Amino acid sequence: MLRVCLKGANSAARKCLCGNGVPLHPLQQCRSYTSGGSGSSAGKIVAASVLTMGGGVGGTILYANWDPKFRANVEKSIPYSDQVFGLALGPAAPPPVINKPRKVEPVQISSMSEVWKDSKQPKAKEVQRKAEQPDAEGPPAPAPQETLEAAAKCTECEHEPAVKERPEGEVAARLAEQDKAEQDLLTSLSSNLEDALGSTAKVTLQAIGAQEAALQAIAQHTRQLREAMEAEAPPDKKSTQWRVLEDALSERSRSVDEAGAAVLKAKAELDKLRGVIDGAKHLKIAAARPSILAAEENLHSMVVDLDSVVTRVQTAQSEAKIVSQYSELVNEAKAQFQKELNSITPEIQANWKGLTGKLTQDDLNSLIAHAHRRIDQLNRELAEQRVREQIHIDSALEQQKLEDKKALEVAISTALEHNREQMRLEQEKKVEETREVMEAEMRTQLRRQAAAHTDHLRDVLKVQEQELRSEAEEILNSSLMEKETEYRRLTQDQLDSFTLDMNAAYARLKGMEEAIDSHVIAEEEARKAHQLWLSVEALNYTLKTAALNDPTEPLEGAVQAIKESCAEDEFAQALATALPSESLSRGVYSEASLRARFYTIRQLARRVALIDETRNSLYQYFLSYLQAMLLFEKAQEAPPAKLSAEDLDTFKLLSYAAYSLEHGDLELAAKLVNQLKGESRRVAQDWLKEARLTLETKQVVSLLSAYANAVGLGTTMAP
Amino acid sequence: MAEEQGRKWDRCLADSAVKLATGLGVGIVFSVLFFKRRTWPVVFGLGVGLGMGYSNCQQDFRSPYLLHGHMVKEQ
């Protein structure tokens, strides 16, 4: 982001520079080429770079002012930028996102708070717990109680709408406030405690010091006393010793008094401390408990020390008493001994140690005797003393017992108290430990629960995510499919419509084509029909070309023409092929020629009328000739509609045929001629064949012409 | 076929004439040679000729009704 800003700024700067400097740059370059760089160009470069940098920095700061995330990013990436930003813009707003471990505890707290929202006292307790959990040192604060009350109030008023979920920022802010308040509280408390402890410790130490001093003084005194007793010093030294002793004694008494006063002060301080501790305990802040406990322990130890020191002082005092008594006794004994010694050996001085060289044998003997006597005396005294001792011991024991009892009681009481205190402290410590342990356990359990909760959430989220994803995918797929089907439908519709149009167009085209084709065909047909007709006419004409006695021209050409003209017309083809081959090759005779020929045939048939298979000798021939000469029939006789048996006579038949021929009915004539029998039939066979050919041809031709006419008519009639 | 009769008659007459003449000739020959110029072999010959001609003619005229086998010349 920063780089982008920089780049933007740079490009902007460069653009503005370039915009201004485009005419300059080549000049500059020229100048640099020619004059080797000038100050203005360098100045311009410097100015440009400064402007760019300033622009970049200013842009960054402005954007950071606007976008806190960007500011955070920049602060993360560029060191000391946070200071720059702080200078320019002021401190950053507290980030809405706090660290996770720190988040966990507030979450824990809120959950715990939501769990324990029954009564005020547990609330207060947990408020204090909340106040104490984040353990930190902070600036000093007003009295803990006030702040605690304020904290309690604010946490209480926080807790009253307990269940609803607070936004993170608010929670964090409140927690921060609470933390601060707790910190303040704690620090105040701890400082109070420390102050109290310190003062108490000081005083106690003072007391202890005083006691120690007293002890020392006592010890010194006793030592000196013992020294004084034991050492046999010259009288002036003795007097100095005694003076020193007196000083020591006065000092001892003074120090003892001081110690007593210090002890009293210390005891007062301790009581004060105890009061403070109790007050702190009454405040019931858990985290201060260890410090309270420590303070209590300190207190206890101080008390113990004080007591021990006091007991030591007392023992020392008693020792001193004993020692003083002993010293008195010793002094007495010494004095007595001295007196005795002096009585025995007046010359000898008190100091034994310097005597060894100066003593004579007698002195020694006397000394020894004295010593022996002394020993005897001492033995007696000892025996006496022993006896008395017993009594003394008993009384002393009794006294001692009493005193011991008293002391024991006192000691027991103090020891009990100490023990009680110790036990209480230990119990409290243990309680505290167990509480800590439990709290730690609870914390771990809660953490575990939170972890489980987060895991569960994660799983649920995952499942939900999957579900949602699958749903979304389904929806996506369904919508995709819908869209696809829609699209397909549309394309299909388009295609269909297009196809329809195409089909319609194609159909129309086809129709048009067909119409044209049909027209073409019709025209073709017409043409063909025309051709056919023409060819048929040609055939007719060729038929008419028959000379009188010659057949027509061979019809082959015309038939070929017909065949060509009607190549696909089966009827015509059939008809064309139905023509007898002789007509094609040789042509046919015309009717007139056939008619003409008939007469010769008739003559001949008349002459051989009697000849047939059975009668075919020459005689019969003669006879038939005779008959033909003598028999006269009508030249033409109309044939009846039906031929009877007697009509089958040759002559009659021939007359019928002649009649029909004369009337143009070749067919009937042929039929009649066909009825001839015998030789006359054989004779007429040739003519009959011809007639048949002609008839056939004529029939085919007439059919063809009729067909051609029909076709032509049909084509002309076609739309 | 109409000319057939004509042709047949022509053939017949020609053949008869030939036969007749031949008969005559053979008759004459025989008569001259063997029968001491009597007329009866001439007549006989004529008759034979005539008869042969007649029978040939008849045979010819009957021929359409008779079935003939023809020798096909191998060529």
TrEMBL record, chain B:
Membrane topology note: Single-pass membrane protein
Pfam families: DUF543
Principal subcellular localization: mitochondrion
One cellular component term from this protein's GO annotations in UniProt: MICOS complex
Keywords, ordered alphabetically: Membrane, Mitochondrion, Mitochondrion inner membrane, Transmembrane, Transmembrane helix
Segments crossing the lipid bilayer: 12-34, 40-57
Localization per Swiss-Prot or TrEMBL: Mitochondrion inner membrane
Family of the protein in this entry: Belongs to the MICOS complex subunit Mic10 family.
Assembly mode: Component of the mitochondrial contact site and cristae organizing system (MICOS) complex.
Physiological role: Component of the MICOS complex, a large protein complex of the mitochondrial inner membrane that plays crucial roles in the maintenance of crista junctions, inner membrane architecture, and formation of contact sites to the outer membrane.
Protein name, as recorded: MICOS complex subunit MIC10
